[in-house]
Specification:
globular; 4 helices; Aminopeptidase
Length: about 150
């Protein structure tokens, strides 16, 4: 599985479809296109509409993962790891020294992936997701120094 770098403009419809397989708070193709048009924003795609994608941006010496989605049938096959590694390497090449992301407190599988790749909790946003994730909705903010080191 080789990640494909996407820059603006790109086929945002496929990204919106992939996002919809993983989240109840849907991002439209138009919304993703607006994000992709912002400076420093890029995406990686693996296995088209049966795989997953990551959307990230770099500003100064910081990178942020905006979203990461892998279709349920493709999970636990390493796609998330491949996408995070590709996005982190691109961020480093663009001058980022630290990468941040947020994840729902209840999303144990995603948190385990991020921790395995070296991310650590730096903050929380209490009630950030509201009832969307069914646990009160805390967002856990994680960061990692680049380059990404995986165990």
């Amino acid at each position: 599985m080789t990640p494909v770098l996407l820059t603006h403009p790109c086929d945002v419809d496929i990204l919106a479809r992939l996002h919809a397989t993983s989240f109840t708070d849907l991002w439209s193709a138009d919304w993703i296109a607006r994000l992709m048009a912002q400076p420093g924003t890029y995406a990686y795609l693996v296995d088209g509409d049966v795989g997953g994608f990551i959307l990230a941006r770099v500003a100064g010496d910081e990178a942020e993962v905006l979203t990461l989605a892998v279709v349920p049938a493709a999970r636990r096959r390493g796609i998330g790891t491949i996408l995070l590694r590709a996005a982190a390497e691109k961020a480093r090449q663009m001058g980022a020294e630290t990468m941040f992301l947020e994840v729902a407190q209840a999303n144990e599988a995603a948190k385990a992936l991020y921790i395995r790749l070296g991310f650590a909790e730096v903050a929380r946003r209490r009630g950030y997701y509201g009832d969307k994730v069914g646990d009160g909705g805390d967002a856990v903010i994680l960061s990692v120094k680049l380059p990404l080191i995986w165990l």
